[in-house]
Write a structure and sequence with these properties.
Helices cover 43% and strands 16% of the residues. It starts with 10 loop residues before the first helix and ends with a helix. Strands 1-2-5-4-3 form a 5-stranded mixed beta sheet, sandwiched between helices. The chain has 7 helices and 5 strands, in the order αββαβββααααα. α3 crosses α6. It is α+β, with helices and mostly antiparallel strands and 192 residues long. β3 and β4 form a beta hairpin.
């Protein structure tokens, strides 16, 4: 499989806002902390796979209600997918195996990765720290974008292989955010 990589598009922020408004309605009876645009499409100027990554930050006590609301709205519950604290959901119309590689929906809309993230988990810290560093550090943003453009020309066995191909630069980004070997332990465990 190949991953689609495109230059930054300001419409991605608008797509996130539409998705966020929809999620706020779906989760109107659920206690959540925030709904965050994360991933490469949240970084102006960064080449990205045109897939909107969304973190719904919750306390553990809200996980069941979040799941019920999302599944009731047509989302597919994919579970933690070996990443503790990160509960993945496919948008309506896609099953557990319908990973987003950058292709559009049949209606031409962007695909989304939606996660219910347990407050304080390593996966959430990863998403937020990567976003913060890339918003602030133009050199790392350019280096990451250049790698993604190179990876767009490669064939991958699956989306996990693509993610692993980015692990060195992501570790560099997270080290820039102050991550220690101890911070990386749960991330490395999830990747193995």
């Amino acid at each position: 499989m190949r991953v689609t990589i495109e230059p930054y598009d300001p419409a991605w922020a608008e797509e996130f806002q539409k998705a966020k408004t929809s999620l706020e309605d779906i989760l109107k009876d659920v206690q959540y902390i925030s709904i965050e645009h994360v991933g490469s499409t949240s970084i102006p100027g960064l080449f990205a796979k045109p897939v909107i990554d969304i973190d719904i930050i919750i306390k553990p006590s809200s996980l069941s209600a979040t799941r019920i609301a999302l599944v009731g709205a047509g989302y597919t519950d994919c579970g933690e997918m070996d990443v503790p604290g990160r509960h993945a959901y496919r948008q309506p119309g896609y099953d557990k195996h319908g990973a987003a590689h950058g292709e559009r929906t049949t209606e031409g809309h962007l695909r989304r990765n939606t996660y219910a993230m347990i407050e304080g988990c390593a996966a959430l810290k990863n998403h937020l720290d990567v976003r913060t560093v890339l918003l602030e550090d133009a050199a790392l943003r350019e280096e990451y974008g250049a790698l993604k453009r190179t990876l767009a020309d490669r064939e991958f066995k699956n989306i996990g292989a693509y993610a692993r191909a980015k692990s060195n630069i992501l570790q560099k980004i997270l080290r820039s955010a102050g991550w220690t070997d101890e911070d990386f332990a749960p991330v490395i465990a999830a990747d193995s």
